[in-house]
Each structure stands twice: as C-alpha cells, then as structure tokens.
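User: Structure please.
Assistant: Input sequence and predicted structure:
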Amino acid sequence: QVQLQESGPGLVKPSQTLSLTCTVSGGSITTSYYAWTWIRQPPGKGLEWMGVIDYDGSTHYYSPSLKSRTSISRDTSKNQISLQLSSVTPEDTAVYYCARDNYKLGVYDYWGQGTQVTVSS
C-alpha cells in the first residue's frame, strides 16, 4: 500500500519561501509510469494544480501562474518529493497535498492527507 505524507511548517511569513516535503512509503518514486504532483486548496476554493515531477526526475511542469515561484525536486535516497514556493503572500494560504499521478490509469491514485500552511506575519 502506497502512502504519502506531507510535512513542513504550518506558518510562513510573507515574502519567505514555503518548503514542504512529501515522504512516500510502500513504493519507489522512481517507478516507471508514475509522476508526483503538488496540489493545493485555498480556503473556500477548489483544488489548484501546482506542478509535477516525473518518475525519472527529468521532466517538470508547473502551473503558469506559479511557475516563476515554484520548484519541485526529489531525493531518491529518502524517497521524498519536495516543494518550494518563494515570495509567499497570504493568498498562498492553503492545504497542500502531494499525489501520485498514475499515467496508465490517468488518475491520481494516491494522495497524502494534506498539510495546512498559513501565510501570516
């Protein structure tokens, strides 16, 4: 059973960089045909896709609205996916999720439980 667990600070000050980690267990992040995605949900709003890194780490895609501030990376030795979002504002307050994108099925088949991040001074 694949499990994803997000972790990171719950409170970030405006203009700082938000850093989150998704630890994957029960499966390798380098397994073919999977990609690893960050998605967020601001309060009272829908899900927002932020970006993705594929199984071999060679391909990254980012939301055009967040591309200039977003970086997704991986640590294969720890089986982790990381998200960095720079120059945060209160509008970046959200629950942040990592999810596995299953290319074969065309679905996000595993999700973390999400982690709340609040941007406030």
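Residues 99 and 111 are 4 Å apart (CA to CA).
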